[in-house]
């Protein structure tokens, strides 16, 4: 009989999660830090060039402006089609903004509250140095903000455009890995940031679907984008049609 995570109690899940984090601290973090220090200068330069893609500025500023513009146009252009169209645009971009911004905010608060020392302090302090509420860049390692942002963005776009999920997550993984390979974060920082960035958009999607903003629940308990036209445009798979029992075949 296969044991599933949901079959475990909350206490068992917490113990399992903490055990995995501890293993990461003890084994993976020192190993990956050693590998990053041995990285060739050319490779380090290349990773430094791509690492800033994980910043949230380029994701949040345009989306915030687009939401404001869509809402303004919705008020100005009266009519059912215009109102519905601008409402869809605003809810779509708002979903991106709330998901990425919310994940980034949680990551920022968490890293400053936990105060884990950066890898550059490893030689003197090791991987277990924490200063609670430090609010210092040198003690803001866990979780990685870049990994959180880019995985939140990849998850959001993957929800809207399912066909692009593989490429999106591959790109996000490399950007998150760059934070480790240039020595700015530990391996566990990037992994926990990626988990946080993936989970938050699902929570936001649930809240949006409950209000029928952009998403809606399907009869089988899943989710889908509202509107067949929007689904076709984003490449969503067509729902399978099950023949009725009363259908007669000649």
Q: How would you characterize the overall build of this protein?
A:
- The chain has 250 residues and is mainly alpha-helical.
- It has a domain at 97-229: Vanadium-containing Chloroperoxidase, domain 1, CATH 1.20.144.
- 64% of the residues lie in helices and 2% in strands.
- It has 9 helices and 2 strands, in the order H-H-H-H-H-H-H-H-E-E-H.
- The chain has a two-stranded antiparallel ribbon with strand order 1-2.
- Strand 1 and strand 2 (223-225) form a beta hairpin.
- The radius of gyration is 22 Å and the shape is globular.
Instruction: List low-pLDDT spans.
Output: 77-83, 241-250
At the fourth CATH level, what is the homologous superfamily of the domain at 97-229?
Phosphatidic acid phosphatase type 2/haloperoxidase
The CATH topology of the domain at 97-229 comes to Vanadium-containing Chloroperoxidase, domain 1
Report, as a whole number of angstroms, the end-to-end distance: 46 Å
Tertiary shape: globular
Could you give a short account of the major beta sheet? 2 strands, antiparallel
Percent range of helical residues: 55-70%
Order of helices and strands: HHHHHHHHEEH
CATH class categorisation of the domain at 97-229: Mainly Alpha
* Multimeric status of the protein: single chain
What would CATH call the architecture of the domain at 97-229? Up-down Bundle
Number of strands: 2
> Count of helical segments?
9
- Cα gyration radius (Å): 22 Å
The spatial strand order of the largest sheet comes to 1-2
Average pLDDT over all residues = 83
Secondary-structure class: mainly alpha
